[in-house]
Amino acid sequence: MEPSNFYYTIAKEGISEYKDRGSRFIAYAYPVKSLDEIKQHIAHLKKEHPKAVHHCFAWRLGLGNLQFRQSDDGEPSGSAGRPILGQIDSRQLTNVLVVVVRYFGGTLLGVPGLIQAYKSSAAFALQTTPIIKKDVTTQLQLQFDYTKMDQVMHLMKQYDAQIIKKDAQLFFNLLVEVSIQRKENLMYQLRDLPFVEVQEMN
Length: 202
Known about the structure:
By secondary structure, the protein is an alpha+beta fold. The chain has helices at 35-48, 81-90, 110-127, 149-158, 180-191; strands at residues 6-10, 14-20, 23-31, 54-61, 67-71, 96-103, 131-135, 137-144, 162-168, 172-179, 196-200.
């Protein structure tokens, strides 16, 4: 199967609240790019909701649906993390984390009730934020003489390449991110410039 040039994720954080027989389920959906970001969001919510009895979550990262995790955080097995992940997957999203914080209301909901609660909470949170289509990108490392600055920057603008990091020493070093659809043409044009070195990073 040909790799896709784009993927779907959420545009911004989404929050929703669901109630069932006294229990409160507060769901948070986040666009994420790394495991570190995921860990930070979960740690932040545990600090923000220290009295909650459960912090259940699911996430999916990257392309090809290979990187994912789900956690029931003490709820019966399969009653929380799996339905949350199911809502992410039903929308064909990636680079998304959904955490559902539960405050127990005193009445047991049973496994079917929990599945419904976590599924609905995740669905509502994902419905509060737009789904966006994003290009798959790659990073290029550029090294060039200062005299080529204007020409290089012109190409960055032309190909909508984002500057991630810059370092000015004897030569100018740039780490840039560009759509894989535009990468080959950009690299060709950069290599056509004298005193410009280009290396693909990933």
